[in-house]
Write a structure and sequence with these properties.
By secondary structure, the chain is an alpha/beta fold. The chain has helices at residues 36-50, 74-77, 82-100, 117-124, 154-169, 175-181, 193-205, 209-224, 227-241, 246-268; strands at 7-15, 18-26, 55-62, 67-69, 106-110, 113-115, 127-131, 135-137, 172-174, 186-188. α1 links the parallel β2 (18-26) and β3 (55-62). The longest helix has 23 residues, at 246-268.
C-alpha cells in the first residue's frame, strides 16, 4: 500500500565484499519533492541502516527518470508560519544529518532534477554521480526564501563565488556545469549511470570495512577542526587502524602481488 506523500524504498543487496543498500525516494507525481511525512520516513530508514553492522555502502536515488529530488514540497511550504517553518526546515536538515552520520560511504545517484533541498541532500552524500541529462538549481530566492541548512556545505564543494551565483541568482545549470564547478565528481551518459556507480561500489568493497569507516569519520572531523587538531586526529586514526588485522592483510597482499609481478617479469626476460 502506497504511503500518503510518498515512499522510501530500501533494497539490500549481498555482494562479494559486503552488503549494499539502495535507498529510493519515491514521490514521482511531485518530482520526488520532500514533504514532512516523507522526510520522516527517510530519516527513519537511514537511522535503521546506520545500525546494520554488515552494511558497506549506500546508494541514494530518486524513483523514475524525471527527478532525483525536485526540492521541498511547495504546497506544504506555502502554508507555513514562523512556528511551523522552523519545524519544516529542521526536518530537511535532519535528512542531511542522517546521511552524513552514516558510518559507510553514501553515493548520490542523480537522475533528472536536483533542486533546492535535493541539492542539499546530494551535498550531504559522500560522492555524487549524475546522468548527463540531470539538471540542478537552488531557486529558493525566487520563492521568497533563502537557501539554508546544508546549502552551507556548498562553499566547500564549489567555492564562494559559485555558491553566490547559485544562491543569489537562482538559476538552473547542467550536470556538466555542476561537475566543472566541483559539485559533482562524475557525469556519465544516462545509460551508463548504474555501471559507473558499480565501479565506485566495487572500489569500496575491495577495501576493508574498518578503514573505510575510519576514513569517512576522519573526513567529517577535518571539516570542523583547525589544521593542527585535524593532523592529531589523523594520527589517532592511523593508530586505531592497526588495532585491526586490515593493514597487515592488505599490505601482505600488496607485497605478494608485487613479488609475483617481479617473478613473472624475470621469467619472461
Amino acid at each position: 500500500m502506497e504511503e500518503r506523500g510518498g515512499n522510501v524504498e530500501v533494497r539490500l543487496e549481498e555482494r562479494r565484499g559486503g552488503l549494499v543498500a539502495r535507498v529510493t525516494i519515491d514521490n514521482r507525481p511531485k518530482l520526488n519533492t520532500l514533504n514532512s511525512a516523507l522526510m520522516g520516513r527517510l530519516v527513519d530508514a537511514l537511522n535503521a541502516l546506520g545500525g546494520n553492522g554488515k552494511l558497506r555502502a549506500i546508494v541514494l536515488t530518486g524513483a523514475g527518470e524525471r527527478a532525483f529530488i525536485g526540492g521541498a514540497d511547495i504546497d506544504e511550504m506555502a502554508r507555513l508560519d514562523p512556528r511551523t517553518a522552523r519545524a519544516f526546515i529542521t526536518r530537511v536538515h535532519e535528512c542531511c544529518a542522517a546521511l552524513r552520520r552514516l558510518p559507510v560511504p553514501v553515493f548520490a545517484r542523480i537522475n533528472g532534477y536536483a533542486l533546492g533541498a535535493g541539492m542539499e541532500v546530494a551535498a550531504a552524500c559522500d560522492l555524487r554521480l549524475a546522468a548527463k541529462s540531470a539538471s540542478f538549481g537552488m531557486p529558493e530566492v525566487k520563492l521568497g526564501i533563502p537557501s539554508v541548512v546544508e546549502a552551507a556545505l556548498l562553499p566547500m564543494l564549489v567555492g564562494w563565488g559559485r555558491t553566490r551565483q547559485m544562491l543569489l541568482l537562482g538559476e538552473m545549470f547542467t550536470a556538466e556545469e555542476a561537475r566543472d564547478w566541483g559539485f559533482l565528481e562524475r557525469v556519465v551518459p544516462d545509460e551508463e549511470l548504474d555501471a559507473a556507480l558499480d565501479e565506485w561500489i566495487g572500489a569500496v568493497l575491495a577495501c576493508g570495512p574498518k578503514v573505510i569507516a575510519l576514513q569517512k569519520r576522519l573526513i567529517l572531523d577535518w571539516e570542523r577542526l583547525a589544521p593542527a587538531d585535524a593532523v592529531n586526529t589523523g594520527i589517532e586514526a592511523f593508530v586505531e587502524a592497526w588495532q585491526t588485522p586490515e593493514p597487515k592483510l592488505a599490505m601482505d597482499s600488496f607485497l605478494a602481488a608485487k613479488a609475483a609481478r617481479k617473478r613473472t617479469k624475470k621469467s619472461g626476460a
